[in-house]
Amino acid sequence: MTTSLPSIAIVGAGSMGGAILQGLLDPSVTVTGGIRVTNRTEAKAAAVRADGVESFALENTPDGNARAVAGAKVVMLGVKPHMIPDTLADLAPFLEPDAIIVSVAAGVTTARMEAIVDNVVLRAMPNTPAIVGKAVTGLSAGSRATDDDLAIARAVFETVGTVVETPESQIDALSTISGSGPAYVFLILEEFTRTAIDLGFTPEQALTLVAGTFEGSLALLAASDSSPEELRRQVTSPNGTTERAVEQLQAADLKATFDQATAAALARAKELAAG
């Protein structure tokens, strides 16, 4: 299956922009009109050019962002949230009238961006598994976006994983789950590995045991019609060792801990939105 996309510019091809770029460079994807990106340094730009992509190093080409967006149908903003307003204001004179602006910055609303440019604006919230093509991306349309605009943006992010369309009122909440979620998973892996080491396994053995268990469990969930709750019950024999362990985990009230964590992340997203 091939994907055809219109011309794309990525303003700020850092870690996330770079991950999306790799998805766009997959042999199954055709980008009519090409891809242009910007990087802060010549070293980073040169690395991108090695993949056959036109890249402007802002340290050498101050008007690189303007040059990248000229003629682009999709303009992805990969800069930090506090840089979005100024970046958009600088780009406004150079954007094509029908360009679709897609921001991957947390907290900056489409209304705030629409006040700066006349273009269609959307927000996307991909997560770091985009690097290996396993992202979950939340996608929200601004007030000017049509179904066709949303379909184009969706196709861009489907090159690196799955897409969940959601009202913008939910995009910050989504970011606390899938956006920040990989950090939660890695933290659990980190602590569970430390426990395995304390039980006498080498660090290498411990990571193999823990990471392999997580990977296998997720594969089992993907292949099953059962819910996580049902699969957990299948592993938890009555009066067995796993039941004793699960009782301890449930006593720790993990739900409340996750509630507190996501609430803190959501509060921070609102702070970012307020500038």
Automatic annotation (TrEMBL):
One of its GO terms (biological process) is L-proline biosynthetic process. Gene3D superfamilies: NAD(P)-binding Rossmann-like Domain (3.40.50.720), ProC C-terminal domain-like (1.10.3730.10). Residues 168-272 form the Pyrroline-5-carboxylate reductase dimerisation domain. Pathway: Amino-acid biosynthesis; L-proline biosynthesis; L-proline from L-glutamate 5-semialdehyde: step 1/1. Its EC number is 1.5.1.2. Residues 8-107 form the Pyrroline-5-carboxylate reductase catalytic N-terminal domain. GO terms for cellular component: cytoplasm. Its main location: cytoplasm. InterPro entries: 6-PGluconate_DH-like_C_sf, NAD(P)-bd_dom_sf, P5C_Rdtase_cat_N, P5CR-like_CS, P5CR_dimer, Pyrroline-COOH_reductase. Keywords: Amino-acid biosynthesis, Cytoplasm, NADP, Oxidoreductase, Proline biosynthesis. It catalyses: L-proline + NADP(+) = (S)-1-pyrroline-5-carboxylate + NADPH + 2 H(+); L-proline + NAD(+) = (S)-1-pyrroline-5-carboxylate + NADH + 2 H(+). It is found in: Cytoplasm. It comes from the Bacteria. NADPH binds at residue 65. It is an enzyme of class 1 (oxidoreductase). The keyword Oxidoreductase applies. GO terms for molecular function: pyrroline-5-carboxylate reductase activity. Catalyzes the reduction of 1-pyrroline-5-carboxylate (PCA) to L-proline. NCBIfam families: proC. Belongs to the pyrroline-5-carboxylate reductase family. This is Pyrroline-5-carboxylate reductase. It comes from Rhodoglobus vestalii. The gene is proC.
